Amino acid sequence: MLRGKFAPNAAWLRQAPYRRKLAWIISWPLDPTPEELADYDRLLVASTQDRPRLAALSGRPAHTLLQATAFGLLFVGNCRGVERPIVAAFSLAGAPLELIGEGWEAMGLTAGSPAIANEALPGSYGQALAVLNDHHGAMAAYGYLSNRVFDALACGVPVITDVAPGCPPELESGVIGHPPGSDAEASLERARELRGDQPRLAAVAAAVAEHHSFDARAGELLALLELDDD
Length: 230
Hints:
By secondary structure, this protein is an alpha/beta fold. It is 38% helix and 13% strand. The chain is elongated, with a radius of gyration of 24 Å. The mean pLDDT is 94.
């Protein structure tokens, strides 16, 4: 039972035919009565400080279990009227996946919103386990790396992508290649490992900032113009 502001029906709680009844108390800690708490076999308390009080009040074993946050994959893009294999692969694998874009209903998927403002993208990227990315055929075949790879890596977030054509070497450690037919769970596990390696992701983000910003590209353009002037 996830116990917050609203209490369960007392009769249901007593008669519920579950082998074990657990309560995870996440808010409104003064509301549960001793009688309600005694109906649980074990308490999970989202407060180290309050755990002893609730244990004494209930007479039940109580353990600290802090609140948590959702941490899933993110794909930003519209459905093109045909299946996008990398989205299909992780959706079929049951991975937690947030879609932002239009047309996904045709694929039996639901997007959280049809669009997102550019200035809001870094915040959404930063909350993701990893950002999914794909390339259309000509981009992949001719070595055009998607701008989304640069954007997500700049936010310190791993990228899972179908291919990584022409990926600069200093960015490769933040990119997880997932060609068609790859094992989705293996890629997810790699993303979890990378997400826990903040020094590595920070180094990749710093490399993007130093070498792959629009300021850096402007510097390259100016250098080319100077060549023309020689």
